[in-house]
Design a protein that fits this description.
This protein is mainly beta and about 160 residues long. It has a single domain, classed as Hypothetical Protein Tm1070, Chain: A. Helices cover about 5% and strands about 50% of the residues. It contains 1 helix and 11 strands; from the N terminus they run αβββββββββββ. A 5-stranded antiparallel sheet has the order 6-5-8-3-11, with helices on one face. It is elongated.
Length: about 160
Amino acid sequence: MKRLTAVFGLVLLAATAGAGMALADNGGKQRPSTTKAYQYVVKGLCNGPEGSPLAQATYKTLTNIVNANDAPTLVRITSAAPGEVPGSSEFVLDPFGVTATACTTEPDPLPFEEGAAIITSCRRPLAVTVAYTVEKGNGSVSIDVEQIAGRKIRLSASACATSD
């Protein structure tokens, strides 16, 4: 299942979002210095060999992430499969920039894997769209496309320090 973490190429933020919050002086009172952020949760499925809990087929997940804002935003992605330590990555997505993550079958087909990715953006919302495809042994292919709704959260200001 370690490959799923690499497949999503994704940032450990959800579990550490409250850690390391800076304190700001607020009239003699100490309180956390926070900033708004947006969080999106994506389910990932990759391949389905014989004996998997799903129907015998090849499963693939493609996640598109779009920054439809006129300023760059820091994006953190955390991904993990059940029983694994989360893997993570962080990058700045340019204004009107697009990136994607996907399952891959090269060089060798992956065993059936499932997991989740938590995508977090600092200060600005993203457009996150996921395409799930299933190819059955008879050659038929089905696709389901979902727009992932984000939720507003608060992060420490230092967690978003490299974002505009």
